[in-house]
Amino acid sequence: MNLRRLVTLCLTCVLLAACKSAPTTPAPTVTVEPTPTTVPPTPTTSPDESPAWLQDAILYEIVPRSFYDSNGDGLGDLPGITSKFDYIQALGANTLWLTPVFSATSSFGLDVTDYATIAPGLGTKEDLANLIREAHNRKMRVVMDLPMAYTSSESMYFKDAYKKPTSPYSDWYQWTNTAHTAYKSYNNVRTLPLLDHKSASVQSYFIQLAQTWLNAGVDGFRVSDADSVPHEFLKLYRQAFKRTNPNAVLLGEIWNSDPKKLAPFFQDEFDALFDVPLFYALAANPDRNGGGMLNGRGSSTDLDAALNVTTLYTPTAELVRFAGNYDTNRTASLVNQNVERARMAALLILTLPGTPLIYYGDEIGMLGSLGTGALAEEYRRAPMDWNQSGKGAGVATWFKDAGKVNKPNDNISVEEQQNVKDSLWSFYKMLITQRKEHPALRGNSFQAVASPCRTCYAYLRWDANDFYLIAVNFSDQTQSLTLDLAKTPRNVSGAGEDLIRGGTMSMPSNGRLTLTMEAREARIVHWGK
């Protein structure tokens, strides 16, 4: 979490709507009471490897309050997400990442007040149980956000221990005086007191919490600000987590562009991490538009440096590739609303090795850049634009953007793009279909192809049945690329299908293939067995 986000987090306290009535289907009981005297379990086995399904996963990140309003109260909710599973599956995503749904002080949800309840207005535990059940019925998975570096200063545990050294929660936080009136906080934000993960009761609480939610059917957690949680606890946590469900995933957020700083978190801690170094190569800055390779700035060596780091990580490490998420400006804004460049971002994220992440609305080119004031972050998390009019069924109204993001008849809505040939939505759909139908795009095969063009990038993906050539011209000029494919990892001959331009492309007998790339053009060519 960056500092700008923290500043707005302190300012933002959005009033949550009233809870919805629960459906009749009972939900798993999710009650976790702190037991300060409980000693956490001692690890007895080595952590399991990362779950194999990660390689097949296409993550779809949803901010629940912004996705779909099922009852017309202005706030997106859990039943709304469940009602749009047909849409999510039509796109091709198969794994949901829900941003924080626990009761919290602000709309961000990271400043948790109660980990055992759902934020009022988003729904109930029964709604979440139904969402998980319906997802599993459709062979989809659900990953939840778990902030566990700190709590809100409004948490009952902190409030009980503040100025009270005799509190049963006195060892939960990092106090700096004996009177418990001074404490360490995340980036010195006083409303985010840091938890003390050396405390046996804190360890027990979060292990019990994980076990409870996993037993309720959750397929894993994304741990925010994981670099503020000690490595010793993360290793212990992973042991207990994997004993409960070895097939669940632990995804860590460490916002650092240095891959060497990420590597330790793969050592018996996380299955997957967000590939922040690649994001910086692509976009340069999460809060500013127009930078990085996606905008023709920098050179191919920047991408090489970001991609050729796998030897730093453990063999089973998974990287989540993204060109935008709820902590960054939206992809379409990062590329200054250039649709060709937005298509480049989609191509890269969905054809590189690793697990691709799509932030809700990026598939239709929704806009959103960091604003100013108390609602600065909300412009990046504005309601999903379902309809051409910008309003109507399902469109949440809790955030009014004064027309800066969601405008009527702007060709940025599901209604205007879904199943429309040549739309950005259809481009995403085509790439996802290729990835799902051809294991070559899901495995770890990868080889960059040398090119004299410094603002271009070309690479290969392959297996025994399929061979892909992917090329991108990030510049604003036509480029001619001569690629030496004579020594590719497998023999390729005959005509390949040009999936974007249409038609076919023949591989020359000498393996030297020349591509004429128009300005800001993305290409993907497929040769079958």
Question: Main traits of this protein?
Answer:
single chain, 529 residues, alpha/beta, TIM Barrel, Immunoglobulin-like, eight-stranded parallel beta barrel, six-stranded antiparallel β-sheet, 25% helix
Structure report:
The chain is of the alpha/beta class and 529 residues long. The chain has 2 domains: 3-360 and 416-437, TIM Barrel (Alpha-Beta Barrel), CATH 3.20.20; 447-528, Sandwich (Immunoglobulin-like). Helix content is 25%, strand content 16%. The protein has 15 helices and 18 strands. The chain has helices at 3-11, 64-67, 78-83, 85-91, 125-137, 156-161, 200-215, 231-244, 259-262, 276-283, 300-307, 331-334, 339-351, 414-417, 424-437, and strands at residues 59-62, 95-98, 102-104, 112-118, 141-145, 220-223, 249-252, 272-274, 318-321, 355-359, 447-449, 456-462, 466-473, 479-484, 495-498, 504-506, 512-517, 522-528. It has an 8-stranded parallel beta barrel. Helix 10 (276-283) runs antiparallel to helix 11. The longest helix is centred in the middle third of the chain and has 16 residues, at 200-215. The radius of gyration is 23 Å and the shape is globular.
